[in-house]
């Protein structure tokens, strides 16, 4: 019987070099598997990529405290860090799979297939998956990786001359050896033909080198081919993404029936280092759980409004929405994950339709008027759910279904084609991006995404102030130093900002003119700085007369609070 027919055992004893190459083979097989899966996902749905699907499942199961730490530590790069972590884990598993295949060729290939099945399960069980087709990228990628690993191990462990009759690569069975082959070899040696063994050993060495060259050639060629295919797939993009991009490019925003009031003179300060009054779209913070930004075709987008207290379900297209009375408003948004002095706050000019008008037209009444629903659950195309108090949406504030941001259609990163904007509430309880459904219900009946993860069901924005300049550990020159920053207390407004140097008295800063109570206010304080190390601290008082408390708290469960301070050294 020929030992090469046994796929469960190497046909010869593996060397240290073989083990290194097997580990490399596992990595290459995993890489090809992911590259092929990405290529297929680009034609199916980018969110069906195994790394994205597994990463999304990991995000959903990550404790809230760990998510908050990731946002604080890595900022808007948290998603890239997560994906890098997934790839590192996969690399370790790939090395192990390669070593397994060295001993059990078929079993190692089967392990690659098993990982593909896990990726497929993750893809089809994501909240945004509505088709079994989402399993295809993972399965096709796994099949490619498994086949490649099987081929590579075959190259690496091919039978070689001089491998030794007693090894697993012997050309006959043990019985055949015992029946005469080994005896013949001993007889030849005894008769002086030992040179034949040396010749066989040399041939074995040459064959080993040829096998390894073949292994490396197959690994390199398939790796390069997979890289090219994946790059091509990403460059071309999916048909759905192309349609979404075309729909956004073709969108023309309507002229608002109620334009935003002109920004008052003196509301925009130009102090070097201060945050601009209007945050450019490219600089506006982004905090969400989407590892791949959803790209929705505006022509196919629909919004469904339904639930308790809704007289009749309503379905709107973007054209329907834009045909309604539109309003334009300047509104500052902030994230609940923003630490004291953090960057996750921004001010923009939003264009959309009043959400309260839409709700009233469908028969919805707030609880204060006897309405049965006290929570509005917005659902995103990626499955995210955000719960908002109905009372807050309908109390007269400018709660919008927005489709414009700073004079252009919403960027994909910020919710195109439509998102919610509700001044005075943190984003996780109000600012649903890529919205596709609004359901009226109660807080008792339903917990939105963040609530079971430890965040509060209701979260009004807390009064905050921040020093933008000088920067922490800056080294300004002695003399007049302009201390400047922003303060916000959406829907209450900012009445006063004060600055303290070291343990000195509080001094009132000069506030820029107020645009509206729903926007932040810039402030400045000219400080006569003496040489040495100093601590600058800021606090704000909102429109109700309440001043920020001194004690700092964590972001969980309903937003951080406390005074922001920076340490500088004056030279």
Summarize the structure.
With about 575 residues, the protein is an alpha+beta fold. The chain is built from 12 helices and 18 strands.
Task: Report on this structure.
It is globular and about 90 Å long. A hairpin with a 6-residue loop joins strand 1 and strand 2 (314-317). Strands 2-1-10-5-6 form a five-stranded mixed β-sheet. The model is unreliable at 1-10 and 162-196 (pLDDT under 50). With 571 residues, the chain is an alpha+beta fold. It is built from twelve helices and 18 strands.
The amount of beta strand, in percent, is 15-25%
Shape: globular
Q: Please give the radius of gyration in angstroms.
A: 32 Å
Distance between the termini: 86 Å
Number of H- or I-type helical stretches:
12
């Amino acid at each position: 019987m020929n030992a090469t027919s046994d796929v469960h055992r190497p046909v010869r004893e593996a060397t240290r070099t073989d083990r290194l190459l097997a580990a490399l083979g596992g990595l290459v097989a995993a890489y090809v598997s992911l590259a092929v899966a990405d290529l297929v996902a680009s034609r199916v749905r980018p969110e069906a990529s195994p790394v994205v699907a597994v990463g999304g499942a990991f995000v959903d199961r990550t404790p809230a405290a760990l998510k908050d730490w990731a946002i604080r530590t890595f900022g808007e790069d948290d998603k890239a860090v997560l994906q890098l972590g997934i790839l590192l884990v996969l690399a370790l598993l790939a090395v192990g799979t390669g070593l397994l295949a060295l001993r059990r060729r078929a079993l190692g290939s089967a392990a690659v297939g098993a990982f593909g099945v896990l990726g497929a399960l993750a893809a089809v069980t994501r909240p945004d998956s509505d088709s079994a087709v989402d399993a295809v990228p993972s399965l096709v990628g796994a099949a490619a990786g498994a086949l490649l690993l099987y081929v590579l191990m075959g190259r690496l462990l091919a039978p070689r001359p001089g491998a030794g009759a007693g090894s697993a690569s012997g050309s006959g069975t043990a019985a055949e050896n015992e029946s005469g082959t080994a005896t013949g070899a001993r007889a030849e040696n005894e008769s002086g033909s030992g040179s034949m063994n040396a010749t066989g050993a040399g041939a074995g060495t040459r064959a080993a080198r040829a096998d390894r060259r073949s292994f490396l050639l197959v690994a390199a060629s398939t790796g390069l081919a997979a890289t090219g295919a994946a790059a091509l797939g990403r460059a071309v993009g999916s048909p759905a993404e192309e349609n979404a991009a075309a729909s956004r490019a073709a969108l023309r925003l309507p002229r608002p029936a109620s334009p935003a009031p002109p920004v008052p003179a003196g509301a925009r300060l130009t102090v070097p280092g201060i945050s601009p009054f209007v945050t450019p779209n490219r600089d506006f913070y982004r905090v969400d759980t989407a590892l791949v930004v959803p790209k929705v075709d505006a022509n196919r987008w629909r919004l469904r409004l339904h639930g308790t207290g809704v007289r009749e379900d309503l379905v709107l297209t973007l054209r329907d929405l834009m045909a309604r009375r539109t309003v334009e408003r300047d509104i500052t948004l902030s994230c609940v994950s923003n630490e004291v002095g953090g960057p996750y706050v921004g001010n923009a000019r939003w264009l959309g339709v009043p959400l309260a008008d839409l709700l009233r037209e469908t028969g919805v009444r707030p609880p204060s008027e006897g309405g049965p629903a006290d929570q509005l659950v917005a659902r995103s195309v990626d499955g995210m759910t955000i719960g908002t108090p109905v009372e807050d949406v309908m109390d007269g504030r400018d709660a919008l279904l927005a489709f414009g941001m700073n004079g252009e259609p919403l960027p994909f990163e910020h919710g195109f084609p439509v998102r919610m904007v509700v001044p005075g509430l943190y984003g996780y309880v109000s600012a649903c991006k890529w919205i596709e459904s609004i359901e009226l219900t109660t807080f008792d009946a339903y917990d939105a995404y963040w609530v079971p993860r430890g965040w509060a069901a209701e979260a009004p924005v807390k009064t905050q102030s921040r020093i933008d300049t000088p920067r922490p550990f800056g080294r300004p020159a002695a003399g007049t130093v302009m201390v400047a920053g922003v303060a916000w207390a959406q829907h209450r407004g900012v009445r006063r900002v004060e600055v303290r140097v070291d343990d000195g008295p509080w001094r009132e800063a000069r506030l820029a003119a107020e645009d509206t109570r729903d926007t932040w206010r810039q402030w400045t304080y000219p400080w006569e700085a003496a040489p040495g190390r100093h601590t600058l601290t800021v606090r704000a008082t909102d429109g109700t007369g309440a001043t920020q408390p001194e004690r700092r708290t964590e972001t969980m469960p309903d937003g951080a609070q406390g005074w922001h301070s920076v340490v500088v050294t004056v030279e």
